[in-house]
Amino acid sequence: ALMHSWKYPQHEQAVGKLVREMGFGQVSVSHEVSQLVKLVGRGDTTVVDAYLSPILRRYVNQVAEELGKGPRLMFMMSSGGLTAAELFQGKDAILSGPAGGVVGAVETASLAGFEKMIGFDMGGTSTDVSHYDGELERTFETEVAGVRMRAPMMRIHTVAAGGGSILTYKDGRFQAGPDSAGANPGPACYRRGGPLAVTDANVMVGKLRPEFFPAIFGPDQDQKLDAETVREKFAQLAKEVGSTPEEVADGFLKIAVENMANAIKKISVQRGYDVTEYALNCFGGAGGQHACAVADALGMKTVLIHPFSGILSAYGMGLARIRANRTRALVKPLSQELESELQALESELEKEARAELSEQEVSDSSVSVFSRAHIRYDGTDTAIPVTLGAMDAMVSEFEQTHRKQF
Length: 406
Fold this sequence. Notes:
This protein has helices at 10-21, 30-33, 39-67, 96-111, 198-204, 227-241, 245-267, 287-298, 312-319, 338-359, 391-405, and strands at 74-76, 82-84, 117-122, 127-132, 138-139, 142-144, 147-149, 153-154, 156-159, 165-170, 173-180, 279-283, 302-304, 372-375, 384-387. It is of the alpha+beta class and 406 residues long. Strands 9-4-3-12-13 form a 5-stranded mixed β-sheet, with helices on both faces. A two-stranded antiparallel sheet has the order 1-2. A hairpin with a 2-residue loop joins strand 10 and strand 11 (173-180). The longest helix has 29 residues, at 39-67. The two termini are 34 Å apart. The relative contact order is 0.11.
């Protein structure tokens, strides 16, 4: 990654060529990975790409071999689009699972007649939330696990509150998460000696009933959920706290719900959207247990639970479209003179994206193109995407969005 390669990639191309000739199997070059300004973010993204691509490549090849020549193999990208197996790169894989969930949530909500929805995907270790009001929201700058990524991704906010989030009581306060019991040993009710987790609190208050579950728990996977151990553990805690086991479990659930409601506020209320007009589209293994409580905490009136809510991320991948993304940084003041340059750049990037799609046998007539310009006030750090068009239109859309957000 060279400092100015977003604008002048020739030196980086030369270095890349040398290194490939030296026989390295995986070479990630920053202007190929993300041709955007900001060296640190671009560098981080390139490192992630170099780290993940060989592992993914191995996995992709393995799946392709097993499938043989017949079916087309496609993968989901973090940006919410599908791409051919041979084009799938490490930088596009970071949030591909949750992105499938967002697409599934959007499609199922619109089938049910809801134009605006909050996606609420609660699994074992974390909860992913997303906002939709007619357009899939993407972000080009994300921090994932402390690593700055400059690649198009769905705007998804994640909090460490899932069914396996461990419940602790210390210094006189209840805490749910951020540590997780994982799939093994799992929550206490799984009969593998696990700690108390959010799932156990739901068993304790009677939201999860052992008689409705198959006998697949315990060391030999032949027992029901263990409600007795859960009751004993909550009884011990209740003694410490000076309360009843049910009240303690309910207290922990309130904390978890508050964490999730705050995550939803971050992507909606704090960005100027009135969340009470939205439907809460709830999915993931643990979503249904908390959906009503989360909706209450936010003043939402509608909760949507699709029959496929347990596998909505996979279902969403089946509904996703093939996409190709191209980005380029200009970093120039917005003026009338810039319009022609923007148009030239747009047609160049469009040609590249169309070429990638036609390689995947997508016919020209079924391609739709979206172009966005990311604009910011000079001296600020927050770029806001607007539809690429005439200058006046872009300025007024930018000002409206800026006012709404800030």
